[in-house]
Amino acid sequence: MYNNRKAVVIYRSKTGFTKNYAQWLAQDLNCELINGKKVKISDLQGYDTIIYGAGLYAAGISGIKLITKNYEQLKDKNLHVFAVGATPVREETTEELKNMNFTEEQRKKIHFYYLRGGFDYTRLSPLYRFLMTLKKLQLKKVKNPDADVNGMLASYDHPLDFTKKKYIEPIVNEVMNS
Question: Is 44 left (phi over 0), alpha (psi -120 to 50) or beta?
Fold first, then answer.
């Protein structure tokens, strides 16, 4: 078993999908797990490896400013970021997310992963339920919807969970080999 007390997994999760991945990572890497809402940059100075995971929303990766705004203080650490979203994992999506959330320098240093999560409308806060209702209305207006649009519309009535522990293997392998 990997044992690295100098590693930490930080997560932000609104509906539990990211938390599942974060717990699996902390377990497999035998390291500390911290809720990202409670962490400050000063809390991270004692770690060599920092793994940050959060849900993906219209504005990007939730709470990613913890990493990006404090990059100068963290750039000498082994940095890993994973985003969790409901859409299927595609290389072009992963590249778009990297480009949208990180500077060129950060993209070279930060190991980035996109993991498929799920969607459960009933777990959303009232604000996000409202926003997702607006998104649903927008999706219903799409002419000739593709499988992704139809799947998203169906998920409002039937929660979806695509999380699988095997999806963390690339992160675990990269951390263990770095």
Answer: alpha
